[in-house]
Design a protein that fits this description.
With 281 residues, this protein is mostly helical. The chain has one domain: Hypothetical protein af1432. It has 17 helices and no strands.
């Protein structure tokens, strides 16, 4: 069995809406302008309302009100807008996931905090576009939900071994299943035709030294994931929180820089929680 074998049925079960698929293709089409994308999104009133709410939130801090999608594209950018549609769509798609092995509210709290912190860390690394880091952080553990849905007995075996093992969750998955949630998550993003840098960051968020397409993305998500767990937003019973030295080297970050971001991360997390999860309810 390979990660893509789990994903084949999941893509049909958890499909992204047509609007995201269309916007994703338009963003990558050099003949499509920001105006074209804005006009297409504006045909969906519910999505338009969501995006304008996000664009007018303190996350962006724009001084005057943004009242059109085309104006929000000016502020956020076409790729940033595409990534926000993806974030909202994925949360909606998985919002009703049910498993006795995972508290779905804790899962999304962990994922959202990781995404928020990753975006803040990306600014400290002088990233030109920060939304892909938010999306990568938000989706880094999505493979866990697929494994628990498709391989419940193996997932339970991994879960039961966490308390007594010194191995990390992904290492236990490798032993029990033969691959881990990061690989499954990356396979899903590949099937969704998401950008390669997001796929790579998700696939290697536990092993940033192996990332080839987006070592910076993988390193930032690796650090953000570890810090998120240390802050108590954890979905795992594992107590060992380890940060790969490679991640510090790639990013140039240190604990002092991160410590100075945590108050802002908490503020943005609470704002994002309201923005994204009132929509999914």
């Amino acid at each position: 069995m390979e990660p893509q074998d789990l994903v084949r049925g999941t893509v049909k079960l958890v499909s992204l809406p047509e609007v995201f698929i269309k916007v994703n293709s338009m963003v990558d089409d050099p003949t499509c302008s920001a105006s074209d994308i804005g006009k297409y999104i504006s045909k969906d009133p519910a999505l338009t309302a969501k995006l304008l709410k996000i664009a007018n939130s303190p996350l962006y801090g724009f001084p005057s009100r943004i009242d059109t999608v085309s104006r929000s594209i000016t502020v956020i950018g076409t790729r940033g807008l595409r990534d926000l549609i993806l974030a909202s769509s994925t949360i909606d798609a998985f919002a009703k996931f049910d498993s006795d092995l995972v508290d779905i509210n804790k899962f999304w709290s962990h994922s959202l905090y990781c995404g928020v912190l990753a975006r803040l860390l990306a600014t400290k690394c002088n990233a030109l576009h920060t939304e892909p880091f938010f999306v990568s952080g938000l989706l880094h553990d999505i493979g866990k939900l697929i494994i628990q849905s498709k391989l419940p007995e193996m997932a339970r075996k991994v879960h039961n071994r966490e308390d007594e093992s010194n191995l990390a969750r992904f290492e236990l998955e490798n032993e029990v299943i033969g691959f881990n949630h990061a690989s499954v998550g990356s396979a899903l993003l590949r099937a969704w035709k998401l950008p390669v840098n997001i796929q790579d960051a998700v696939e290697h968020h536990h092993t940033p030294s192996l990332a080839k397409e987006s070592p910076m993305g993988a390193a930032i998500i690796h650090i953000a994931d570890s810090i998120t767990n240390s802050k108590g937003y954890s979905i795992s019973t594992a107590r060992n929180i380890r940060i790969d030295q490679t991640a510090w080297t790639i990013t140039g970050l240190n604990h002092e820089i991160i410590e100075n971001l945590l108050d802002e991360a908490e503020i943005q997390f609470k704002i994002s929680l309201e923005l994204f999860f009132q929509q999914a309810a």
